[in-house]
Amino acid sequence: MKPLFIAGNWKSTKTVSEANEWIDTFHASWDSSITVVLCIPYTLLPIIASKKPTFLLGAEDVSPFGEGAYTGEINAKQIREFAQWVIIGHSERRSNLGETDELLAKKVVQAKEAELKIIYCVQNESVFVPEGIDVIAYEPPWAISAVSNWKTQSPEEAGRICQIYKNKFPTLPILYGGSTNGENIRSFVTQSGIDGALSGGASMDSRKFIDLIANAR
Ligand code: PGA
User: Fold this and answer.
1) 208 FRET partner, CA 20 to 30 A, in 8, 30, 159, 200?
2) Is the dihedral of CA 196, 199, 203, 209 positive or negative?
3) pLDDT digit string (tens) for 72-121?
């Protein structure tokens, strides 16, 4: 049985009361062969961390700068107070904010310095991956649930592209992201190149995230 890695990403959703409702209804358990990381907005990190969740916590982004005169930025050391993980290079930040490989490399350096573990997102088979990251998430932008209305890439094609990254980074978990849910998760994680999922939409609903984790095995 291969280890599985399931990451959630709330994106720009949830108020404090919505986050509390989610955590109060998230009753799931899984064995130690599955790692679950939930990445959430900065404003919610202290709240969810204070509930001592059974999953690991992550941020959805990190500043490319350290501490200092960088108005509006949240730095890696600040994140590390509440979370162990961070997403870097998500397609929505690359396209909406014009984040470049050069900027992302600076974020990786900052995250490493603060001992944050990194889920690095790639959008096709030839995206540059910097040194020192911990997990790769292949997420074709057109297959993201908010864009595709829950149409996924075919598991075989997703597996083929994930395998390309697996060949380059044999020790890293490689995730597929794009409209995964409790119904389709098995078809992805049974591909030899795929070690888990980066789930946006399904992770926003506690019951759907429970289903996705339960059905991954
Ligand atoms: P989705 O998001 O699960 O809502 O498609 C995936 C992603 O943002 O990579």
Assistant:
1) 159
2) negative
3) 999 999 999 999 999 999 999 999 999 999 999 999 999 999 999 999 99
